[in-house]
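TICKET: design request
STATUS: open
ATTACHED STRUCTURE:
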């Protein structure tokens, strides 16, 4: 039997997303040593016919100047605003989220995100994203106009 791949969401890599287009939160495994509410694992079912809570879908991103990135979005039912979809680009240098919720990001953190993406705000925004066809039958898609918070 193959070993299960479980990891914290912030440890997902591009290779993980290429290998598995859908990931799910392992809420049923929170009691296992080393796992908590941030633990995700590859989703092993068929491509979800509908969006669902607890699923992350591989997504493609395109910046204003045409750069392409790979990442993921929440597959939540409902609208695709940035607070719901919470799009994240996965770079070699780490992950870059565009939604901060109630936390105001520091300029240092935003500069680090720009460095990871290799672009200025003018080159990045607007960023368009869409979940890939092999991840969800009902896509999550949207436009990111800036790093956002409440």
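STATUS: resolved
RESOLUTION: sequence designed for all positions
ATTACHED SEQUENCE:
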């Amino acid at each position: 039997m193959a070993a299960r791949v479980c990891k914290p969401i912030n440890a997902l890599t591009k290779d993980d997303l290429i290998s598995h287009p859908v990931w799910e939160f392992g809420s049923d495994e929170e009691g296992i040593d080393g796992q908590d509410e941030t633990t995700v694992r590859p989703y092993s079912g068929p491509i979800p016919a509908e969006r669902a809570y607890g699923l992350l879908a591989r997504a493609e991103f395109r910046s204003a100047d045409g750069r392409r990135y790979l990442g993921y979005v929440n597959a939540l039912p409902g609208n695709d605003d940035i607070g719901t979809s919470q799009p994240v680009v996965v770079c070699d240098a780490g992950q870059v989220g565009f939604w901060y919720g109630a936390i105001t990001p520091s300029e240092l953190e935003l500069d680090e995100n720009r460095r990871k993406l290799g672009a200025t705000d003018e080159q990045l925004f607007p960023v368009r994203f869409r979940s890939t066809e092999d991840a969800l039958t009902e896509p999550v898609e949207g436009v990111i106009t800036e790093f956002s918070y409440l």
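CLOSING REMARK: The helical segments are 14-19, 82-85, 107-117, 121-124. The two ends are 46 Å apart (CA to CA).
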